[in-house]
Description:
Layout: E1 5-7, H1 57-60, E2 83-86, E3 89-93, H2 94-97, H3 100-105, E4 110-116, H4 117-122, H5 128-132, E5 137-142, H6 148-169, E6 185-189, H7 195-208, H8 212-222, H9 230-264, H10 280-283, E7 288-291, E8 294-297, E9 300-301, E10 309-311, H11 313-316
Parallel strand pairs: 3-6, 4-5, 4-6
Antiparallel strand pairs: 1-10, 2-3, 7-8, 8-9
Helix pairs in contact: 6-7, 7-8, 7-9
Amino acid sequence: MDGFHMATQSWSSRAPSPPRLLVPPPAVDRNGAPVSSISQSKNLDFESSGFANSDFLKTVTYDNFMTRNAMVEWKYGQRWTAQNILPFLFLGPVTAARSRDFLRGNGITMLLAVRDTKSAHARLLGSKAAQELDIPYSTLDTTGNQELIAAFPRGIEIINAHLSATYHQNQDEPTLTNRSTPGRVLVFCESGNERSAAMVVAYIMAMYSMDVIKAIQLVQAQRFAVAFDDPTKLLLQTYDSILRARRDVFRSSKQNNSTSDKATTQPYPVTSRKLSKRTLDDTCDDGEMEVDGVEVWNGNDRRRGAAPFCDDVGLRR
C-alpha cells in the first residue's frame, strides 16, 4: 500500500531548524569604502524606544555619526584593540579594557563588561587600570548567549544612565563644535567580537530604530573582526521584533491618549453603542465558515493546504 504513494516535496531526516539570517556585505561607494552611516535629525523620537535617560541623544545626534569606515583599512592586529562605533561608544576586547594608555588616551568614562557567569566567578575580565584611573565599571553576567536577550535592556539602561549623567555635567564645558558631549563607554568581552558586539548592535537597534541587518553591517564596518554565529543572529532578530512591537504599542498608546484628550474638550458628549460579545453570525459573516480545517467561501475553497503525499498513478498500473 505504501508503494502507491509518493512525497509531494523534498524531505530531510535532520532536526528542524529556523531559517538562517544572511547578512550581506554593505554597499560601497566609488572609492570602495562601505556606505554605512547613522544620519538622524533632531526630530528622531527616542522616547518611543521605551528607555529612560535618552534625552541627551537629541543633542548629540547630528550629521553623520560614522566619521570613518575602517573596513577597507582593517589589519589583523586591530582585533586586539577597541574601535569607535559611535562617538560615545567603543567596542573591543578585554585587552583594551586593561590598557591604561587606551583608556586615558580615548577619554573612556565607563567600562561595561559582557561576560559569562563562569568568567565572572573566575574574575577573568577585571580591569586594574580602570580602578587606578577611577573609571566606573559595570557588568552584564549571563550563563549563555541565549540569556543576552534578557540582558540587552539592562545594558542599554546602564549605558544611557551614565552618558546622560555625564552629558549634563559637561554642559558647562562645550566642545569645539559648541555642543555638549556625553561620556565614552567601552563595551567589551573576551574577544570583543561576540557578546559585547551583540550588545552594541542591540543598542543601535533600540536607540536609532535600525533593523538588525543594517545594525550588524554598521558595527562590522567599524570592527571587521566581529563574528556572529547563527543562534546569535537569530537572537538579535528576535530582539529587533520585540523593539518594533514596543514602538508600535508606544505610538498606539500615545495616539489613543491624544484622541481621549480631544474628546474631553468637545462641548457635547459622544454617545457610544453598548459593547456585546461576538455571536456566531459575526464570526462567520457572509457565509464564511471552516470545514475540516479549510476555510470555505460560498462553497468554494479560499485556501487549500499542501498535502505531504499524493497517489502515484503510475505505480498503481
